[in-house]
Amino acid sequence: MSRSSHGAHSPNVTMRDVAKAAGVSIATVSHVINDKAGARIGDDARRRVQDAVIALGYRPNALAKTLSQGTSRFIGLVADQIATTPFAGQIIHGAQDEAWRHGYVLLVANSDGNAAAEDEAIAMMLEHQVHGILYSSWYHREIDVPEQLHQADTVLVNCFAPGSGLRSVVPDEEQGGRTATDELIAAGHRRIAFVNTTTPSPAKVGRLAGYRAALAAAGIDTGESLVVEASPEQEGGYAVAQRIVDSGATAVFCHNDRVAMGLYDGLRERELRIPEDVAVIGFDNQEVIAAHLRPPLTSVALPHYELGVAGVRILLGLDPADEASPTLISCPIVARRSV
Predict the structure, then answer these.
(1) For the packed helices 304-315 and 90-101, what is the interaxial angle rounded to 10 degrees?
(2) Pick from 318, 335, 260: nearest CA to 131
(3) Angle at 290 between CA 176 and CA 209, to 5 degrees
(4) Which positions, given as ranges, span the membrane (predicted)?
């Protein structure tokens, strides 16, 4: 018979192995092993976990035992492609800084959009009894919540899931759209176009709502000819340049900085100067674009760092959050020379 059959300690056996053998969740295994008070576990499930522990020779290591006693100082962050995007990695930076500030260490797993890798990352974090999990996407969107996230205290960052019961923190897209439009109004413009995206998203809806709200508050008519849709990249902005000229707009609010970059090219080809002939504002404040256009582009920033901070604060109970609606984080304007 093998050593594990006698219950000898096998250093390679994990809580996940026990859960698989017993046909239960990792959380259930943790509750049984640590005899967690108040855990509602049936006698059959408890017996299967105990049998699997003996059969596999599982024994919690010192770290797991310490974590099980409620002294975990780890916060998990699971993301899709956040670590490989040029600006969204700031969510990790903000979460890490805030976690350190309160004596916690951030454990980061980047799934690169791979569902199996994501499941494995969440399972690992549950096994190590993290204090809670931040689940983040690299762009603001509605998501389907991975089932395992319901086994931990979870906050969604830069994404949301209505009806899931999970708290979330997202950019205030409408406020950002209003801020951009207000900047152009303050500069004296009254005929302001908005180049929106063709891609359905909270950003498309929210930024348009903010644009319309700012114009309405200023008593400016929002003619539909001034709202133009374009694909959300440089080519999209370039393609609508003639429509912007034909509209008679003296200022343009662009859905993002890439669209603004293309619009710059289209306006320049038509011998129009920025901002003397047409003022332009972007969105995202993608530094590699906005700061290096000529003239540098005024842009509304997505608050990625602040989203990470807010996610940790909500997870630690330092700030309140409503499960019924996302917590909104303001999008500040970064003024340059395009207005």
Answers:
(1) 40
(2) 318
(3) 20
(4) none
The two beta strands, 298-301 and 74-79, are: unpaired
Say which amino acid occupies 312: V
Residues 6+ apart with CB under 8 A from 146: 118, 119, 122, 135
- How much is the CA Rg of the chain, to the nearest whole Å? 25
One-letter amino acid identity for 174? E
Closest CA to 64 of 19, 22, 15: 15
Tokens of 266: 């289209």
Instruction: Count Cβ atoms below 10 Å from residue 21 Cβ, excluding itself.
Output: 18
Q: What is the dihedral of CA 292, 294, 300, 306, to 10 degrees?
A: 20
pLDDT tens digits for the chain (339 residues)?
343 444 444 557 888 889 999 999 888 888 887 766 677 888 898 899 989 988 888 876 645 555 555 557 899 999 987 666 666 689 999 999 999 999 999 999 988 778 888 988 998 898 888 899 999 998 899 999 999 999 899 999 999 999 999 999 999 999 999 999 999 999 999 999 999 999 999 999 999 999 999 999 999 987 778 999 999 999 999 999 999 999 999 999 999 999 999 999 999 999 999 999 999 999 999 989 999 999 999 999 999 999 999 999 999 999 999 999 999 999 999 999 999
Residue 20 tokens read as 């698989």
Q: Which amino acid is at 338?
A: S
Q: Hey, what domains does the chain have and what are their CATH numbers?
A: 4-68 (1.10.260.40), 73-172+304-331 (3.40.50.2300), 173-301 (3.40.50.2300)
Whether residue 173 contacts residue 206, with contact meaning beta carbons closer than 8 Å, is answered with yes
226 vs 247: CA distance, rounded Å: 6
